[in-house]
Design a protein that fits this description.
The complex is a heterotetramer, with 2 copies of chain A (337 residues) and 2 copies of chain C (621 residues). Chain A is of the alpha/beta class and 337 residues long. Chain A is 29% helix and 19% strand. In chain A, the strands form 2 sheets. Chain A has an 8-stranded mixed β-sheet with strand order 2-1-3-4-6-5-11-7, with helices on both faces. In chain A, a hairpin with a 2-residue loop joins strand 9 (243-248) and strand 10 (251-256). With 621 residues, chain C is an alpha/beta fold. Chain C is 36% helix and 20% strand. Chain C is built from 20 helices and 22 strands. Chain C has a 7-stranded mixed β-sheet, sandwiched between helices. The model of chain C has no long low-confidence stretch (mean pLDDT 94). The chains are: A alpha/beta (337), C alpha/beta (621). Strand 12 (333-336) of chain A pairs antiparallel with strand 9 (243-249) of chain D, so a sheet runs across the interface. Bound molecules: thiamine diphosphate (2 copies), iron/sulfur cluster (SF4) (2 copies) and magnesium ion (MG) (2 copies).
Chain lengths: 337, 337, 621, 621
Amino acid sequence: MTTEAPVLAKKDFQSDQEIRWCPGCGDYAILSAVQTVFPELGIPKERFVIVSGIGCSSRFPYYMNTYGFHTIHGRAPAVATGLKLARPDLQVWVVTGDGDSMSIGGNHLIHTIRRNVGLKILMFNNRIYGLTKGQYSPTSELGKKTKSSPVGSPDYPFNPLALALGAGATFVARSVDIFQSHLRDVLRRAAQHEGTAYVEIYQNCNIFNDHAFEYMTEKESRQEQVLYLEHGKPLVFGDQRDKGIRLNGTRLEVVHFADGFGPDDCLVWDEEREDPIFAFMMTQLLPPAFPTPIGILRSVPAASYDSRVLAQITAAQEARPARLDDLIRGPETWVVE
Amino acid sequence: MTTEAPVLAKKDFQSDQEIRWCPGCGDYAILSAVQTVFPELGIPKERFVIVSGIGCSSRFPYYMNTYGFHTIHGRAPAVATGLKLARPDLQVWVVTGDGDSMSIGGNHLIHTIRRNVGLKILMFNNRIYGLTKGQYSPTSELGKKTKSSPVGSPDYPFNPLALALGAGATFVARSVDIFQSHLRDVLRRAAQHEGTAYVEIYQNCNIFNDHAFEYMTEKESRQEQVLYLEHGKPLVFGDQRDKGIRLNGTRLEVVHFADGFGPDDCLVWDEEREDPIFAFMMTQLLPPAFPTPIGILRSVPAASYDSRVLAQITAAQEARPARLDDLIRGPETWVVE
Amino acid sequence: MSESVSTVESQPREVPTEKLDEVVIRFAGDSGDGMQLTGGQFTSTSALVGNDLSTLPDFPAEIRAPQGTLPGVSSFQVRIADYDIHTPGDAPDVLVAMNPAALVKELKDLQPNGVIIVNTDEFNERNLKKAGLASNPLENGSLQGYRVYTVALTTMTRRALEGSEVDSKTQERSKNMFALGMAYWLFSRPLEPSVRWLERRFKDKPALADANIRVLRAGWNYCNITEAFQVRYEVDRAQLPAGSYRNINGNSALAIGLVAASRRSGLPLFLGAYPITPASGVLEEVAAYKHFGVTTFQAEDEIAAVCAAIGASFGGALGVTISSGPGIALKMEAINLAVMVELPLVICNIQRSGPSTGMPTKTEQADLLQVMFGRNGESPMPVLAASSPKDCFETILEACRISLRYMVPVFFLSDGYVANGSEPWRFPKAEELPDLRIDFRTDPEGFLPYLRDEETLSRPWAIPGTPGLEHRIGGLEKSDGKGSISYDPANHERMTFLRAEKVARIANEIPPLEVVGEPEGRLLVLGWGSTAGAITGAVNLARREGLSVSRAHLRYLNPFPPNLGEVLSRFDQVLLPEINSGQLALLLRARYLKDILSFPKVQGKPFVRQEIVDKIREVLA
Amino acid sequence: MSESVSTVESQPREVPTEKLDEVVIRFAGDSGDGMQLTGGQFTSTSALVGNDLSTLPDFPAEIRAPQGTLPGVSSFQVRIADYDIHTPGDAPDVLVAMNPAALVKELKDLQPNGVIIVNTDEFNERNLKKAGLASNPLENGSLQGYRVYTVALTTMTRRALEGSEVDSKTQERSKNMFALGMAYWLFSRPLEPSVRWLERRFKDKPALADANIRVLRAGWNYCNITEAFQVRYEVDRAQLPAGSYRNINGNSALAIGLVAASRRSGLPLFLGAYPITPASGVLEEVAAYKHFGVTTFQAEDEIAAVCAAIGASFGGALGVTISSGPGIALKMEAINLAVMVELPLVICNIQRSGPSTGMPTKTEQADLLQVMFGRNGESPMPVLAASSPKDCFETILEACRISLRYMVPVFFLSDGYVANGSEPWRFPKAEELPDLRIDFRTDPEGFLPYLRDEETLSRPWAIPGTPGLEHRIGGLEKSDGKGSISYDPANHERMTFLRAEKVARIANEIPPLEVVGEPEGRLLVLGWGSTAGAITGAVNLARREGLSVSRAHLRYLNPFPPNLGEVLSRFDQVLLPEINSGQLALLLRARYLKDILSFPKVQGKPFVRQEIVDKIREVLA
Ligand SMILES: Cc1ncc(C[n+]2csc(CCOP(=O)(O)OP(=O)(O)O)c2C)c(N)n1
Ligand SMILES: Cc1ncc(C[n+]2csc(CCOP(=O)(O)OP(=O)(O)O)c2C)c(N)n1
Ligand code: SF4
Ligand code: SF4
Ligand SMILES: [Mg+2]
Ligand SMILES: [Mg+2]
């Protein structure tokens, strides 16, 4: 199929379904960002498919006027992998939650990332099971009190981006539901990536886990708590941009320019580093000691799984004629008169 | 139960079952190492349980004269987690393969590691599905020709130790089937760890993937290809110990002492680093550019999942009397005469 | 005057009171309006008053719907009576509608000439539109044929709280207490129980407690003072068997039953689960019982949950897992491992409407064949089903007993209707409960992992840590007795037989099926699980009408009670209502070659009594 | 002289030849001895000669057993005949035993006075001990009653290769060719086919090819020259229907059938699978057919495999997944999604012995009820079963046709016996195969995702990329027609009915069940799947004995052929042999209320003809 760039607008991607998220849910903001970015991509509407699992977040496809598949809990990446293999011409986006993709769906997620399947995966991380009404999730903090953990969760949480990098992710990013313009930029970059683009989106569940990300989303604290990763720029942050991140031996530390340090002492961000070490370092910047990095943690080119599989098939087709009769006949036959 | 140190010998851990691995299989060497180490641990034999999944490697329990559970494919960590939670007094070891734990069992593996359940996990990595007669596994190299990949595997392989660190592993190590004394040391260290001890063991499948690790196991090349991680020692290797690993900015590189470098230029190994960055760096030392690190990549103390769960229960028991009649009666009752 | 609101209790106004033998009330409003809580309070108070009762909550689908819309309506139906009842009632006599959507959605169920109490404050343009109404039903006469009482509930609530320190959002939210107060007045119930409850609930937030109590009283007083209602109703206490009672829902009865089984067996309870509607509540409740030494493990998925339970069972705990249909499907491979290694394990399936994700918040009984047959190979398992909320307690104890005694995984079936519905329960004393103690094998002398007990055919439970009993188990076929791996054809046939025979022998211990009504005759109405209430109510009514019909209810679906075949043979016809397409009917036909009149209903809703009564009439006509 | 070994072909020695109508030969040796290959060669050559034949390979369990031990024995049985046969034969006439373990393990099956050819070189202390033998059976007279031929096979092979450049390990390994050469002489078969095959196989290793050919000839010459054998045997060509034949096993027929279905439907094949015995072979074979544009996806587990197939199907491919019992259990939740979204999907279950891991390399038919009912909720699915290796081809084509035409997931059942067994196949021409083309929906005009075809009730297949047909599907209950989420009770009941009715209507298209023998009478032997051969053989034999017995075989297990009930009613008794505890019997009893004589066998082994013949006699006695 050829891609003639059609002129599309946000409304073209809005479905007629009435939206059933709680008022104030962070999912609305993400939906809006996606509906804003899709028309810009110059891809015909019918070429988009959104595949989701089960969860509040996974209701996403119903609100997008594209092809959509609301599958079963945790399996969206597997369904999407099959779809992408069968139809490399499609833009396949996976929408999932921290329970859907980090809990029951963890295995499909890491294998999709490992293979580098050409999927864009948006993981709405609200650190809770929303749809089932508020049990702790694999990203909930240790000791978190929820319906199913009355005296606090005994689980250490996952660091989703560290896990993705450990699985060999070629594109890893993080953004926040209400940081609209930043989120849109990240989505545009994800759309461009050939392999698996894994995007963690901090999303507020105002019913079961309100204020989860307040520490960094509040206007006041934002500059102090957020580290914007910008390719080629030093890792500087703070209201006055008066702090930075440097590497001391193999240790990361915050330096205050007041103490005579300057941007030159800080690490210069490189999202294209061939090895994942630098990106992995960023996943270890955790509050309260460090600001939380958002933006592109890793973006390196690598042939997608679907392209490699397709190449094998094409090569085979060029190398050998495919006659069904030959296949049925097989190597040895005999005739009975 | 009290632990009076019994005097046990290797033969105490040998079962009467006749071993059914192929002659020459690396599994024999690992079995021997385990049978040698167990008696040294001063733990009564009946206190050991070996839980496995399905695969050649997973036949392991039958050959150990301890309690054993040969479960189903990929689920050993989940079964073992339940056992350890119910019976913290037991020494629970999980034996699994690269297919059993990295493929179908990937999710249970990363969640066990995340929770830091008090299990010792031995992953026999022969980079192939042995029991099903030679299909590629998630650790098989890209392009590997196997029964199910006649023109080569289209999958990028997992880096098992990177994945474990990405999942938050507190103890990570690597050894090799035929490096008997090294393997025994690693097993002893694993036995001491409170949380999840994840050990990757390179294991040769001489039937379906022979020579997989020859590049580093051959006497000739061994010193050149293996980097022995020793706590507090510089990362030096080579026949003449004339090469080392240093960090240049955020990049790792091999330095040749011939070029004027010395051990002081090399990174000093620290297996106890609180953050996983240094350990993660080691997982990125890949052949042929780098020697392959073996030994302890990470060993940091952290309360095990089972100990935290137990603490919650004990606290609750001390805080509240547990009268079944009260529970049945509930908050509100009325009487009918 | 009639618009002022007093919040201090005054003397009941002199109005005629009408005695009713039963009444069905449905509280309906927006998800946010607290209808479940309101219904719950009305229920407990009525219980304390001594009525028999039965409730039916109905929440919107898991995902939240926009305020004021039809999908957002949450309702709670309670039936109170002065005689013993078995269902929450077919059609409500009274409907409390907190907004237009609630009125629209629930009206169709209301009895002709039924009472409607509406909150007029919510009947504005926006809400009418959201409810898909062109004009206001309070004005367009569409409510003719009902007794409509319009109250500015929100306004009244605000008034009642003038000068209160709680913020206005909270004020507004307490309007359900106003409705509750009204209901209490109308049905002559005391306010005290709810007052006490509010005080308990908000003991750290006195202001909140006070506010709610004020509104509750205000609602009561409103009815008492205004001339709106010219009659009050009374429903006398029911003649229930003497004893101590509590109100309980199915999931709580199950949770408590599991703890009880742990106590009575002396084994620590290990509950492995992954949240899923409608089973999550059991996990959440048991998690609160840590002081009983129970362990709850919220796993990464259903497979890990059941595997962990199997591991715990191998270690000597009472291993249990709970889930619902889709999760049960995922567990089957592991459950089959438990069948092969012959360890105790109890799997609770709180059934919901399928197939696939289906209608998660709706009830169904359509997983019977799944739990019977959803495993590869010949894999027989005992299956028990609870017939009502309180019956979950007894049935889970029995499921645990069988599992421990026979070393076999057992399925416990419940469904959304039983799980969320509630009823009074004449609860037992702990020491009256069955003794579930068993012995672990400790003697190495002559120990073989698969040497069987002559009577039950169960194998010894030898747990790790026991000196001298070191052994290996696993999913491969085992040699009879020794338990080592065996590919011997005759052995496989024998082990297959033994696994089946072990389950079959349970029948020797279970009570014979009881027939209520004539022991033989023209028609038997047979049921299993949550249809018990509707069937009982229907058969009682039909019999009062003089129809010759008996009933029987199955708790044991595998194995069947030994006398089942003979019972069936004694009736010309057997009518089998099921909330599925006839799954038990299939099993009975296959087993007894008797034609069963299958009466399926697959609407995600329980049977109402009338449906079964009509069917009985039709069959006997 | 008798000890020298010539490797150049000489003229057949003048010996009496005896004509046989059939003979059963079993080649048995250590896993490493290449018995499967030897048997395979003997089979193809016999096929070329024109015999009818049937084979039964038997490997040791997946895990490798130590050399020379009983668990390590691998055998291959082939039956050749001059008339048409249906099974690999009950008991071998000739046993080739390459070592003591093979002799011990296989001897019990051998016909009285059967021929035994043993490799004496392997009968040393160590090997006798490994086989659990106290003394040497070749010397202790325990082989009385058999015709034993002892040959120093290894020594002979070495001799034959004196001066050859291949290493001695390789030399030793080629001894199976010596045995093959002997068998060729003994049964008067030409050497050329195997010679050609060896040349093809080792075309890059001429030395190896030459060595094997030399040993093959040496074996033939050995018999020809030595006086060991005083008679040769001949089995004439069978009178098979005219046409072109090939030899084929079940998994190959399935793999080729899938490619054929792809070609005939014009849809690219997507095969998602996770390796598992005995299904892996299908994945491996299809992976080699990339030039047909097929995609194979080796997934991380069975769930991902089926989910990927569903995703591919959503995208417009022919989505297929293969596995065996335990893997099928894991797939069920996802298969149920396919039932709900009504997409084409074919699930192949190559059954093995269960429950749980069971006996992976052994055959069984015990997953029928699992595939029928192993999903939550009311989830009907078509189920078809292949009756023989070659029948896998036709049956998979039919399964794909139904799946595509009705937009429904379909189960295809095979088992280890059918998968690994082989038989001659009069293969069809591609253009004679059914036309499986379907149309994707492309017209936006009046498009609704769940608007149904009047005849088949199937919904439109509208694939992504089609302008104007953007829509959403999922696992929640759908509204009839529009396909949007619906919790409406009546709609759920209707959709439940429609999903069932769609499957039921398939019966209108499938051929009526054919009865072979009298259309009515005292006894019908009914079968399904892999029991076809044994039943056919048995019934034919019983009829030759004049017994009044007919037979019929089911390919369609859901829905049943429309005339099935009526067929059953025409016979006094229905005997149903199954490699399970009576699973189809249960379905038939439930459906037709007819008492079925279930004849179960659960030994991980197929029926032998004699077992069924005896049963028929017993029933008719
Ligand atoms: C097989 C299965 N198990 C469990 C569930 C119940 N369930 C639905 S969504 C969900 C978790 C959702 O959490 P998350 O993915 O974080 O989504 P959110 O609602 O927070 O957006 C669970 C446990 C299910 N639908 N299916
Ligand atoms: C549910 C299930 N799926 C598939 C299989 C088949 N199977 C058994 S072992 C195995 C892979 C074994 O590979 P690995 O874990 O690396 O063990 P190895 O044999 O190499 O030691 C597979 C796919 C199975 N037994 N069960
Ligand atoms: S429950 Fe939380 S995540 Fe779900 S819709 Fe409501 S606010 Fe959003
Ligand atoms: S197949 Fe490979 S891994 Fe398995 S036993 Fe043989 S050599 Fe070892
Ligand atoms: Mg979430
Ligand atoms: Mg392996």
